[in-house]
Structures are given as structure tokens and as C-alpha cells.
Design brief:
Layout lengths: L3 H50 L4 H13 L5 H26 L5 H17 L1 H9 L6 H8 L6
Helix pairs in contact: 1-3, 2-3, 3-4, 3-5
Length: about 150
């Protein structure tokens, strides 16, 4: 019996197995890198948000938001608290957008956030003022995405 053809097939099968293993390893490394980058970005955003929390008072924000939504007059301090609250809110939206760009959120999930952002702009002049005064503080991709959501003037 001639074992040479069997040896060739076994060698070919082993080589294909090695290539499949290497391809699998590349995919795993890529996924791990994305997860690490995502975790690093989340940690950075958490630091930024923690910084902003230092200057925000939830009780003042809750009271000011109620007054604002009821049409009552708010003072400059309350307005600034609501402004900072919206900046904080949009920093979270920006992080979600970055996660979406990395493929960690589906199109459907990001569409939900787009609707939320649009509703915020439609119902909150302070959020719109914050957005317009903070151009350049966001990633270009997020700014482009949000530009499509701004109300028509």
C-alpha cells in the first residue's frame, strides 16, 4: 500500500487546520482589542462625567427642571445647572455613539438614541443652546450625526 498520498492529504488537512486556528486567533485578538479600547474609553468618559458631577446639584437641577418645564422663571444659577446637566447628558450620548461606531450597538439601538436626542432638542432650548455653544467639544462623527437631528430654524 502506498502511504504517500495519505500523508499528503493529512499534511494538507493539518496545514488547513493551522490556518483556521490562526484566523480564529486573529478574530479573537481583534475582539479583545475592541473590548479593551471600549473599556478604556468608558473609563475616560467616567472621569469626565465625575468632574462635571462636582459642579452639579441634583436637587437644584430637579427643581430648576420642574420650573423650566412649567414655564416658571429660572435664575442664572439654575439655568447654568440645566446647561451643565445637558452637557453631561450629551457626553453620555457621544460615548454611546462611539460604542455604536465600534459595532457594540446595533443600528436599531442607535436609532433609539437618535430619537431621544431629537426629542431633547425639540423640547429643551437650554440643550440646544448648550449644543450650539459647544461645537468642537465633540468628535467630528458625533457632531455630524447630531447636525442631522437639529430642529429646522
Amino acid at each position: 500500500m502506498n502511504v504517500e498520498p495519505v500523508n499528503r492529504w493529512l499534511t494538507l488537512a493539518a496545514n488547513v487546520g493551522v490556518l483556521v486556528g490562526i484566523a480564529f486567533l486573529i478574530v479573537e485578538i481583534n475582539q479583545n482589542t475592541q473590548a479593551t479600547n471600549s473599556a478604556s474609553r468608558d473609563a475616560s468618559v467616567a472621569h469626565v462625567l465625575n468632574y462635571f458631577e462636582q459642579g452639579m446639584d441634583n436637587q437644584v437641577i430637579a427643581r430648576a427642571y420642574h420650573k423650566y418645564r412649567s414655564g416658571e422663571q429660572i435664575d442664572a444659577f439654575e439655568r447654568r445647572q440645566l446647561y451643565n446637566y445637558q452637557y453631561y447628558n450629551f457626553k453620555i450620548f457621544e460615548n454611546i455613539h462611539l460604542q455604536y461606531e465600534q459595532g457594540l450597538f446595533s443600528d436599531r439601538e442607535w436609532a433609539k438614541y437618535r430619537r431621544i436626542i431629537r426629542r431633547v432638542f425639540d423640547s429643551d432650548e437650554i440643550a440646544l443652546d448648550m449644543w450650539n455653544s459647544r461645537q468642537g467639544n465633540w468628535t467630528e462623527e458625533f457632531e455630524e450625526e447630531v447636525a442631522d437631528l437639529l430642529p429646522d430654524e
